[in-house]
Write a structure and sequence with these properties.
239 residues; mainly beta; 15-stranded antiparallel β-sheet; 2 helices; 15 strands; 9% helix; elongated
């Protein structure tokens, strides 16, 4: 006897449950099992578009752009102060693939501040760092350290304008001493001036000039001696 099978009038319930579980478009707050929560836009069950994520375990919050489940675009990242129970800004700027990338501002816990370019989560490119002692560095960065041309200004008015490598003064540079009315121009290696020329620079306006002026050089060929010394230490052309 033949068996006649009639088509189902509707799909099984688990198909409908699965369809409803897929998050796409603007949704209300979604809570994870660990207590994290997200409010914003979705695409194919991933955070995508504008949204705010709160991590319960760390008390941190990110509000901004998302792309396929990762922070990507412009956004702000803040942490919860355990004492005041208020959110404190940590970073505001651009992201790519869940890392700081592009221009952004980072607020350090000790009060220091960095404004500039980022790459792969670290300071890279042109930027300005404000240190807690009142000094500032503005220039090129690489792998989270000053690297390339840059200007360091100290709280007492002295400043260094020249090359940097791995966070230290390196290569040709000029160190201005307005308090003494002097200028040192030469070559630095790993933060140490190896050779150069020290000259008077605004001695008349200096608040604390040395008692005696810089003596005259008695070498037959001072320029030749300096050039030879500079050639020994200047490796900027090899970088």
């Amino acid at each position: 006897m033949p068996v006649i099978k009639y088509p189902r009038l509707r799909d099984p319930l688990f198909y409908e449950w699965d369809r409803k579980a897929q998050k796409c478009g603007l949704r209300h707050t979604i809570y994870a099992v660990n207590g994290d929560q997200y409010t914003g836009e979705w695409l194919d069950n991933l955070r995508h578009g504008k949204g705010t994520q709160i991590w319960k375990s760390t008390g941190t919050i990110y509000s901004g752009d998302w792309k396929f489940g990762k922070r990507d675009g412009y956004g702000a990242y803040s942490i919860l102060d355990p004492e005041t129970k208020e959110y404190k800004r940590v970073y505001t700027g651009w992201w790519e693939n869940d890392r700081r990338c592009g221009r952004g501002t980072f607020f350090y816990p000790n009060g220091e501040l960095y404004e500039g370019e980022w790459s792969n989560g670290v300071r890279s490119g042109w930027g300005k760092m404000h240190y807690k002692d009142g000094s500032t560095y503005e220039g090129q960065w690489l792998m989270d350290q000053p690297n390339g041309p840059g200007l360091l200004q100290l709280p007492n008015g002295n400043r260094y304008d020249g090359g940097w490598k791995d966070g230290k003064k390196h290569g040709p540079g000029k160190f201005f001493y307005p308090d003494k009315g002097q200028l040192l121009e030469g070559i630095w290696v790993a933060d140490i001036p190896k050779c150069g020329v020290l000259v008077e620079f605004g001695r008349e306006e200096a608040p604390a000039p040395p008692e005696l002026p810089i003596p005259e050089i008695k070498l037959q060929d001072p320029a030749g001696v300096l050039a030879e010394a500079q050639a020994m230490f200047d490796d900027s052309h090899n970088e």
